[in-house]
Amino acid sequence: MTRYHFHVQLADRLIPDREGVDLPSLRSAFEPDNAGACAPWDALLNAIGGMPDRITVITDEAGRIVFVLSV
Which residues are paired to 21 by β-bridges? Predict the structure, then answer.
């Protein structure tokens, strides 16, 4: 399994995900079966959901960017 980190950037402020989540693949982060593993990530998204200029940066355990989502 790979540990993925879901960092959130709000304007010039980065909120790092120091803990991360162990997942078999990045795609599995978005599958209903892994809802429990991604609960902290979901809680953070709900808290900042209405904020403009939000960017989510997902990195792997080596710190490489594997996905960026700009909302």
Answer: 4
pTM: 0.73
Report yes or no: 29 and 21 within 8 Å, Cβ to Cβ: yes
Look up residue 35 and give its two tokens: 């809802």
Report the candidate in 25, 28, 8 with the shortest Cα–Cα distance to residue 17: 8
pLDDT digits (tens, 9 = 90+) for 54-65: 888 999 999 999
Domain ranges across the chain: 2-70
Separation CA 11–CA 55 (nearest Å) = 8
Residue pair 10/52 in contact by the 8 Å Cβ criterion = no
